[in-house]
Amino acid sequence: MCGERVRVESSDGAAVMGIDIGGTKIEVALAAPDGEILGRARLKTRAQEGPGPALERVAGMVVALHRRHGADRRIVALGAVCPGVVQPDRILLAPNLPGWEETDLAAQLRSATGVATVVVTNDVRAGALAEVRLGALRGCRSGLYVNLGTGIAAALVVDGRVAEGAHHAAGEIGYVRPSGALGAWAVTGYPHLESAVGGNALAERAANVLGESLSTAQLFGRADPVSAHLVHQALGALGTALVNLAVFADPDRVVIGGGFTASADVVLPVLDAYLRTGVPFPPEVVVGDFDRDASLHGAIALALDTLGPPDGGPLLDLCTEGATR
Hints:
Layout lengths: L13 E8 L3 E7 L5 E8 L6 H19 L4 E9 L2 E3 L2 E3 L12 H9 L4 E5 H12 L7 E7 L3 E7 L2 E2 L29 H6 L1 H12 L5 H5 L4 H25 L3 E5 L6 H15 L5 E4 L6 H11 L21
Parallel strand pairs: 1-4, 4-7, 8-11, 11-12
Antiparallel strand pairs: 1-2, 2-3, 5-6, 8-9, 9-10
Helix pairs in contact: 1-2, 3-9, 5-7, 7-8
């Protein structure tokens, strides 16, 4: 599922950094070799300024967290995650980070921080990694992690490993073409499902139809017929896509993360009904154990993997190599 893993020689007196870059905010955390978070901070992304200024501010926060919470430790690795297709030497298809495409995230972080070992991956696969290690996918032989929010994406877990795909684009289900009215168009390379039922798309449709600005949670909480129709249409498209994924992957469990979990009482019963009626061996569907920071914990796990297996067992096979020793 990926190439040779970079390993750090020793974890004695070591620490790692996890960095979760989003469209509006960046989370940075310092962690000990056992995964304990020693300190964390949040920055505004200000993505419109481009990757250079943002990553310089990240580097400054790395230094500040190190001084405050781990001055007696060496930072031996960084794990960094962001939206889009994160390849070893570039970011692609990242509309929430305008101007970041073609950025070599690992190389720029290495240069900005002076930390030689930097590993990077997509934020949703990082979220799946966190759930596999510490959360709702722990112990599952096969599973799906599905992030539902502004973006729509998934990660596939097979034999305890998070798959990346030939182009590091596995799980980009936002590009799935939904059936029916929502899928009536066909444009190559267009995120059909995400543009139909992602958080921004739902908010825009609600504003056009209802004449008022609503968050996804507010829309899901309304009982009027028009709102109910919008929700039914969106969850129907998501349910159909999830059924097709589950038929293909045969997961033990489907874990839902992202902003839609704020309306889990509405979302989960519908998705569960689709899975129970459409999949030969229906998986259970649950909300992830992490609230809003699964990707950050996944970034930490990615960095910790450079220290070697914590228990002598096999490492999870999820990495995008961007590191040197």
